[in-house]
């Protein structure tokens, strides 16, 4: 019996799944994928926003507040790129687990761009580092080109990721992209599909998140006597303006994105779409209120921005599920080959190492950053440090004991 | 569609092949990441000395090296890490998929370490002098142990790529059996040794810039001792490592690797030992340019051939001796309910079973038979062979420039069909597809003749 086009695509997606199956229930990976993506996207937005602001501020550096802000944002973007890379690993990993057919096909079809992504990111980040090293008092105007090039590469890389993610949603078109003129095109040089509304929405989110980040920045440093009050007020005001403007831009581009979506997804009728619009409206109204009442800086906007990204993460995943419905692709029917030891390895590492070691590092940075001069660790922080060393020794000991036992057993 | 194979589209890179793209990114990553892990231990050891002996001046070196690492390892290393994933994804999607699905939780645990490591390196560098020394020392030791943990976790996966080393994993499908494979401990020892040696060499670049003479001598000698220990440990581990390799790997090592590799590696080893011995003896004579040159020599003449060899000796497999480089599943794995693709290929061929066969090639005619042969050849062979006259194991050269279709077909239907060449995959193409591939491969050495054939066919 002849299969319909959708049935053929559905069958292809099924056979492309890895035959080894997955070691835990698919929903576990789905939740982790969305959850870790939120952190990744937060830093993507902080990077793009702070990089753009640092360049703008650089051009106005005759004013000492702008000068200070340019230097601060250059550094923030530098650290943020590191974080976005490392935090991007997790959603990339979990995507490959449950959406491997989509992700791999999309990547191979634009392979040259996937590889180009790596090298342009290295070039962009290196260029940003040069800008960071140069951006000090007395810097020459020409230094800005390092920053512009860096930011341009970051935006290009964002666009490549956008294309790879979007192409993954269109399996019915893969074969035609691969064999456009009747022959297999194995060059991987094509970028086959993009969605302007979606891409610009994420760009606009950088402005919102930048604003929230600035407010948090002003709040964080307000206990430091060496940080001038006027400067922090200036930063906080700027933050609110950006958050408000970003939310407006996001609202427009979100509607654009919704109209770009295929009709069968019925995104305009989805409560989640309206929920996101409502969230942005409420967020904007609160910011406007804070602006008019000259409220002090706080972490509130950052928490709200995080909430917004989380909603977008859920929306993005809901879209993917609906995109896949015509092809009967349902992650919950992925073959599960339960593997308890490795599952335990991850969750125990996440809690033990992530919690204690990560907690120790972050606490040390947070406390020392808010202290003028040298920070003398409190008893609790000191104990946290000892516990972090202890958990690492314990983890490595268990690792080796288990390894030697398994190895000897098998040999 | 029940007969469809789980094959992805292919990415073909003329001349160098996708394998070299992967190799280049991999080598850069190994250099940056091993330097970083080795340096983290160096920091912990030097800082312990600084705290115990009350020598805060030693911290200046750690700060310098740390800032250097931020640029060198945490730009290049952290980008090329996921970069390897991207490279394997586009070069061998089935291979990376197999690894991900066997080791997802191991990789996820490694990601936890990556994250704390990145936070840790910023904390370590920027909190020198901003937090009390004892707490900073705890931070540095935690960072060193966490950095090494990333190596512990990735080595199990890399070793499995070579082979599990026994039948356990094929029967149980257990991640532990796959991870703690025969090759694991020797491989871990080898990489741990290398991390000390490379961190010692890179460390010289910064040590040579230290203004305080005493500090410079002390640090340089420390680096030399660490480097020499790394080289000797590496030699011992190498001897063990070779013993844990599968038969196909040993055959490739003995017969297929370029002849310059072994002498080059020995020369680099000797040069590294001399470099460390000399810098221990005359620490003040170590100049920055010389340390840069030594690092470059280790990377280009040592690491690149070593990584390339490691990739080569794994052939024809890409993972666990059950996935071939060309994406096909080479054997059943009961523990994971995985079935070999080879019976399907033998029965139906590639054109009928590949989900990405262009529609126009599903029916072979006189006009498209060369394209059909090219498609099959590239899907089955191009992961390891260039189809040009130069580059990665070029096919025309491997066939000695033969244009004899019957002879090539005899090879395809004989040794290749039955999988009797240890470093080649078994490719049991049906007779009709053998003919198509043979015609295409013959055309590579005689493109004019092929063009003529094509023109004739079109005119018919």
Give the fraction of residues assigned to helices of chain B.
55-70%
Helix content of chain A: over 70%
State the end-to-end distance of chain B. 33 Å
Mean of residue pLDDT values of chain A: 95
Strand percent estimate of chain A: under 5%
The secondary-structure element order of chain A is HHHHHHHHHHHHH
Q: What kind of sheet is the major sheet of chain B? A: 2 strands, antiparallel
Tell me the overall shape of chain B.
elongated
For the record, what CATH class of the largest domain in chain B applies?
Answer: Mainly Alpha
The helix tally of chain B amounts to 17
Q: Indicate the structural class of chain B.
A: mainly alpha
Oligomer: heterodimer
Q: What's the CATH topology name of the largest domain in chain B? A: Formate dehydrogenase/DMSO reductase fold
| Order of helix and strand elements from N to C terminus of chain B | HHHHHHHHHHHEEHHHHHH
- Structural class category of chain A: mainly alpha
The CATH architecture of the largest domain in chain B would be Up-down Bundle
> Which consecutive residue ranges of chain A, at least 5 long each, have pLDDT under 50?
none
Number of strands of chain A: 0
Q: What would you report as the Rg of chain A, rounded to the nearest angstrom?
A: 24 Å
Provide a count of the helices of chain A: 13
């Amino acid at each position: 019996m002849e299969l319909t086009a959708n049935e053929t695509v559905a069958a292809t997606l099924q056979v492309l799944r890895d035959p080894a199956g997955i070691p835990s229930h698919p929903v576990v990976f789905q939740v982790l994928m969305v959850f870790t993506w939120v952190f990744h996207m937060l830093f993507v937005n902080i990077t793009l926003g702070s990089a753009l602001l640092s360049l703008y501020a650089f051009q106005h550096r005759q004013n000492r507040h702008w000068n200070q802000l340019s230097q601060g944002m250059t550094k923030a973007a530098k650290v943020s790129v590191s974080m976005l890379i490392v935090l991007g690993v997790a959603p990339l990993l979990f995507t490959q687990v449950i959406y491997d057919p989509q992700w791999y096909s999309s990547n191979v079809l634009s392979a040259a761009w996937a590889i180009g992504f790596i090298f342009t990111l290295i070039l962009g980040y290196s260029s940003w580092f040069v800008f960071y090293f140069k951006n000090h008092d007395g810097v020459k105007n020409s230094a800005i080109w390092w920053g512009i090039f860096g930011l341009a590469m970051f935006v290009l890389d964002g666009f490549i990721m956008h294309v790879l993610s979007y192409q993954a949603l269109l399996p019915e078109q893969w074969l035609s992209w691969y064999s456009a003129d009747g022959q297999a095109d194995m060059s991987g040089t094509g970028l086959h599909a993009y969605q302007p509304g979606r891409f610009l929405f994420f760009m606009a989110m950088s402005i919102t998140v930048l604003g929230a980040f600035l407010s948090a920045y002003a709040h964080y440093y307000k206990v430091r006597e060496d940080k001038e009050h006027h400067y922090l007020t200036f930063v906080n005001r700027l933050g609110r303006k950006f958050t408000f403007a970003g939310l407006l831009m996001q609202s427009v581009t979100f509607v654009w994105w919704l109209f770009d979506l295929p009709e069968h997804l019925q995104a305009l009728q989805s409560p989640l779409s309206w929920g996101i619009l409502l969230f942005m409206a409420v967020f904007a109204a609160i910011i406007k209120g804070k602006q008019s009442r000259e409220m002090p800086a706080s972490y509130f906007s950052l928490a709200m921005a995080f909430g917004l990204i989380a909603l977008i993460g859920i929306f993005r995943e809901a879209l993917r599920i609906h995109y896949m419905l015509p092809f009967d692709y349902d992650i919950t029917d992925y073959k599960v080959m339960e593997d308890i030891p490795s599952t335990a390895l991850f969750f125990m590492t996440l809690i033990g190492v992530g919690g204690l070691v990560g907690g120790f590092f972050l606490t040390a940075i947070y406390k020392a950053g808010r202290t003028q001069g040298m920070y003398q660790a409190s008893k609790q922080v000191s104990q946290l440090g000892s516990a972090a060393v202890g958990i690492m020794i314990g983890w490595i000991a268990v690792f080796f004991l288990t390894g030697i036992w398994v190895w000897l057993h098998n040999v | 569609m029940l007969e469809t194979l789980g094959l992805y589209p292919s990415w073909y890179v003329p001349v160098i092949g996708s394998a070299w793209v992967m190799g280049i990114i991999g080598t850069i990553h190994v250099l940056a990441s091993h330097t970083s892990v080795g340096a983290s231990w160096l920091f912990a050891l030097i800082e312990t000395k600084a705290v115990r002996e009350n020598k805060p001046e030693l911290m200046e070196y750690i700060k310098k090296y740390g800032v250097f690492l931020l640029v060198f390892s945490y730009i290049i290393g952290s980008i090329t890490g996921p970069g390897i994933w991207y490279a394997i994804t586009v070069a061998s999607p089935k291979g990376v998929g197999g690894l991900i699905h066997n080791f997802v939780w191991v990789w996820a645990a490694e990601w936890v370490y990556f994250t704390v490591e990145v936070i840790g390196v910023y904390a370590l560098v920027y909190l020198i002098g901003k937090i009390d020394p004892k707490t900073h020392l705890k931070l540095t030791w935690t960072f060193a142990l966490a950095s090494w943990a990333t190596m512990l976790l990735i080595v199990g996966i890399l070793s499995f790529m070579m082979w599990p080393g026994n039948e356990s994993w094929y029967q149980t499908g257990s991640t532990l059996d796959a991870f703690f494979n025969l090759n694991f401990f020797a491989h871990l020892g080898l990489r741990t040794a290398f991390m000390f040696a490379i961190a010692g060499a890179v460390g010289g670049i910064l040590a040579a810039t230290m203004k305080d003479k005493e500090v410079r001598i002390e640090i340089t000698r420390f680096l030399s001792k660490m480097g020499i220990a790394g080289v000797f440990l590496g030699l011992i581990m190498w001897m063990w490592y070779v013993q844990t390799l599968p038969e196909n790997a040993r055959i490739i090592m003995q017969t297929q690797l370029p002849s310059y590799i072994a002498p080059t590696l020995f020369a680099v080893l000797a040069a590294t030992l001399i470099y460390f011995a000399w810098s221990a003896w005359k620490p003040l004579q170590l100049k920055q340019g010389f340390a840069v040159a030594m690092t470059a020599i280790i990377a280009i003449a040592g690491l690149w051939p070593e990584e390339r060899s490691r990739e080569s000796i794994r052939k024809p497999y890409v993972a666990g001796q059950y996935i071939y480089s060309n994406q096909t599943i080479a054997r059943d794995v009961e523990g994971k309910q995985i079935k070999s693709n080879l019976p399907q290929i033998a029965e139906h061929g590639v054109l009928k079973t590949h989900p990405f066969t262009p529609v126009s090639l599903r029916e072979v005619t006189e006009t498209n038979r060369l394209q059909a042969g090219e498609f099959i050849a590239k899907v089955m062979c191009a992961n390891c062979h260039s189809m040009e006259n130069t580059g990665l194991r070029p096919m025309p050269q491997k066939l000695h420039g033969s244009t004899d279709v019957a002879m090539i077909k005899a090879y395809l239907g004989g040794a290749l069909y039955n999988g009797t060449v240890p470093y080649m995959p078994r490719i049991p193409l049906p007779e009709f597809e053998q003919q198509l591939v043979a015609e295409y491969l013959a055309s590579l050495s005689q493109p004019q003749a092929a063009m003529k054939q094509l023109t004739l066919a079109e005119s018919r």
